[in-house]
Amino acid sequence: MKHKKPILDRRKVVAEILKDRGDALVIPGLGAPTWDTAAAGDHALNFYTWGGMGGAAMIGLGLALAQPRRRVLVITGDGELLMGLGSLATIAVQQPRNLAIVVLDNERYGETGMQETHTRFGVDLAGMAKAAGFRAAGTVFGAAQLKSWVPRLHKQAGPVFAAIKVTTQPAPMILPLREGTAIKHRFREALLGAKAHE
Amino acid sequence: MRIAAKAPRNTNWKSEKGFTGMRNARQGTSHESRVTSNGSRSSSSWPDEIHRVLAGANVRQVGYVPDSGHARLINLVRADKSMRAIPLTTEEEGVALAVGAWLGGERSVLLMQSSGAGNCINMLGMVNECRVPLLALVTMRGQWGEFNPWQVPMSQATVPSLAAIGVVVQGVDRATEVGETVAAAARLAFSTCRMVAVLISQRVVGAKEFK
């Protein structure tokens, strides 16, 4: 299979996805997706992860099932998703209509020295999501395609999956809130109000 | 192709007579049976008690990797409209699921056998850091009357590895004490935002016999 070199900039992709986020709940995966999400604008309804590699999609599932009226967006990386591939099958069995998973696929482990991930060698994450039973899944290469996918990520009946191919161009580190309990409390207070402390 | 909107439910469990019949139905074979500490069939009531405790504690999401010791409880959960049965491919998925559920205001529980405890360790680090309540009910293997040597190492490592990542570990080795132990563990987990695992002894679950 001929390799197609990614051209999209990850920061611009995330900014476009979150520009009109409405009341969406956002779970960024550890590493660059957390910095990208913070760069698009800090928000109490971002649950930044700094660890728990492989868990972002499943956090999204638990949240989507608990909050069926809210859109849940998981924004993670290819390495992070590859560590929890089974979660695609688990999510497909549950069929949450309000869950969308976005993989910013730079085909690299960005935080550890830019080693190639399996996707660089042709592993097709969207194909796996589709085969697992996601309602919609696709790989996004260009700006026009991204523009048509953004509303689908927010509105189309889920589970929806998009692998968005992005460059390895380094972006400045934008570090959000770091302490797990603080991130959790801020998120729950914004979502649940006084019930957050019952 | 569309698949079912919910995990498929076992609709036959109510017609089975008692625990033994249902377990045999699930395993689909007659060559496996179980012995408990006194050599009799294991108690039929403790999974029902767990189910009552979980319902009373408003547990909504039930993640599980099956163990035959949890077979009856899993079927009770599947038949309960107030709970969502969520089969997992590996136990650590259920740890992350519990974080999402709690963020969204719902309580969850994670069912597994002891070999699954090792699969959870790094993900539990996130739960520890975030002080998310986590209730895990672990049926023990490789312990009382075990036949399969491959079950023993993780069984031996279950308590120290869970304790090392910060889980409060509470054991129960009598069927009559399972319900109250799970109730106490649920209260501890959800009231103090801690990770609590109840280890249900193989003495209660029954050792698998290979014949």
Order of helices and strands of chain B: HEHEHEHEHEHEHEHE
Radius of gyration of chain A: 16 Å
Number of helices of chain A: 8
Total beta strands of chain B: 8
What is the CA-CA span between the terminal residues of chain B?
42 Å
Extract low-pLDDT stretches of chain B: 1-33, 37-43
Helicity range of chain A = 25-40%
**Could you give the distance between the termini of chain A?**
55 Å
Strand content of chain A: 15-25%
* Strand arrangement, major sheet of chain B: 3-2-4-5-7-6
List the helices and strands and how they pair.
The complex is a heterodimer of chains A (198) and B (211).
Chain A: H1 10-18, E1 25-28, H2 32-39, H3 56-66, E2 72-77, H4 78-82, H5 86-94, E3 99-105, E4 108-109, E5 115-116, H6 125-132, E6 136-140, H7 143-155, E7 160-165, H8 180-192
Parallel strand pairs in A: 1-2, 2-3, 3-7, 6-7
Antiparallel strand pairs in A: 4-5
Chain B: H1 18-27, E1 32-35, H2 46-56, E2 59-64, H3 71-78, E3 84-87, H4 91-103, E4 107-113, H5 121-130, E5 134-139, H6 152-164, E6 168-172, H7 178-192, E7 195-200, H8 202-205, E8 207-210
Parallel strand pairs in B: 2-3, 2-4, 4-5, 5-7, 6-7
Antiparallel strand pairs in B: 1-8
Helix pairs in contact in B: 2-3, 2-7, 4-5
What does this structure look like?
The complex is a heterodimer of chains A (198) and B (211). Chain A has a single domain (10-197), classed as Thiamin diphosphate (ThDP)-binding fold, Pyr/PP domains (Rossmann fold), CATH 3.40.50.970. In chain A, 38% of the residues lie in helices and 16% in strands. Chain A has eight helices and seven strands. Chain A has helices at 10-18, 32-39, 56-66, 78-82, 86-94, 125-132, 143-155, 180-192, and strands at residues 25-28, 72-77, 99-105, 108-109, 115-116, 136-140, 160-165. Chain A has a five-stranded parallel sheet with strand order 1-2-3-7-6, sandwiched between helices. In chain A, strands 4-5 form a two-stranded antiparallel sheet. In chain A, helix 1 crosses helix 2 (32-39). The longest helix of chain A has 13 residues, at 143-155. The radius of gyration of chain A is 16 Å and the shape is globular. The model of chain A has no long low-confidence stretch (mean pLDDT 97). By secondary structure, chain B is α/β, with parallel strands linked by helices. Chain B has one domain (30-210): Thiamin diphosphate (ThDP)-binding fold, Pyr/PP domains (Rossmann fold), CATH 3.40.50. Chain B has helices at residues 18-27, 46-56, 71-78, 91-103, 121-130, 152-164, 178-192, 202-205; strands at 32-35, 59-64, 84-87, 107-113, 134-139, 168-172, 195-200, 207-210. In chain B, helix 5 links the parallel strand 4 (107-113) and strand 5 (134-139). In chain B, helix 2 (46-56) packs across helix 3 and helix 4 (91-103) packs parallel to helix 5 (121-130). The radius of gyration of chain B is 16 Å and the shape is globular. The chains are: A alpha/beta (198), B alpha/beta (211). At the A-B interface, helix 3, helix 5 and helix 8 of A face strand 3, helix 4 and helix 5 of B.
